[in-house]
Amino acid sequence: MPVFICPGCGRRISGDRHQGHQPRGCASCGFGFLFELLDDYYPSPKTALVVCDNDRKILAAGLASSAITGFQERELLGHEVTERLTLKYEDGDPAGRSLEWGVRVMGVECTFRPKGLQDDRGATADFFPAYDPDGGLLVALTPK
Q1: Structure confidence by residue, pLDDT tens digits, 40-79
Q2: Distances 80 to 73, 104, 137 between C-alpha atoms, Å
Q3: Burial letters for 60-76: b for 16+ Cβ neighbours within 10 Å, e otherwise?
Q4: Are 112 and 124 in contact (CB under 8 A)?
Q5: Helix, strand, or coil here: 83?
Q6: What are phi and psi of 29, to 5 degrees?
Q7: Which end of the chain has fewer surrounding CB within 10 Å, N or C?
Q8: Would the CA dihedral through 17, 44, 7, 104 be positive or negative?
Q9: How far is residue 120 from each of residues 34, 72, 88, 113, measured CA to CA in Å?
Q10: Angle at 81 between CA 67 and CA 32, to 5 degrees
Q11: Spatial contact of 5 and 11, defined as CB atoms under 8 Å apart
């Protein structure tokens, strides 16, 4: 049974697809679309959710993204997520691995640089590939 998460508020919806299509929008916050997950996921209230396309360009910034990254959504849109958030990983490219293999990559230790700060901050990142025909990626960034 598919599970959907709203990138805007983090609300999860499980159930069958309505006539073969994923549910439209979030009834709680009005965010325009839901992101399908294979398994349920419970983000922390301190987790920034960022939705990207297949090229990792940011399409939407939702739950806690401004508070965590310091960027307003308009400052993130269209930018490559790793570059814009200055994400650094010790082990390869988990975003690329998630997109290439179609698997979620969880608990990646990383650093990022919030807007206006000179120092990197420690975080844990989770990456979820999109399972719809458009593809894409959901990045969940939780600061330490």
Answers
A1: 888 999 999 999 999 999 999 988 999 999 999 999 999 9
A2: 13, 19, 12
A3: bbbbbbbebbebeeeeb
A4: no
A5: helix
A6: -115, -10
A7: N
A8: negative
A9: 31, 19, 9, 5
A10: 70
A11: yes
User: What per-residue string of b and e applies to 94-106 under the rule 16 or more CB within 10 Å gives b?
Assistant: bbebbbeeeebbe
Dist. CA 44–CA 63, nearest whole Å: 10
Can you tell me the distance from the alpha carbon of 144 to that of 136, in angstroms, rounded to the nearest whole number?
26
d(CA 117, CA 21): 42
What does the DSSP 8-state code read for residue 100? H
- Which residue has tokens 């120092």? 119
Amino acid identity of 134?
D
What distance, in Å, lies between the first and last C-alpha atoms of the chain?
32
Q: Are strands 12-14 and 3-5 parallel, antiparallel or unpaired?
A: antiparallel
pLDDT digits (tens, 9 = 90+) for 116-129: 999 999 999 999 99
What SS3 state is found at 105?
Answer: strand
- 95: part of which helix (H) or strand (E)? helix 94-101
Q: Give the pair of three-digit tokens for residue 95.
A: 């975003």
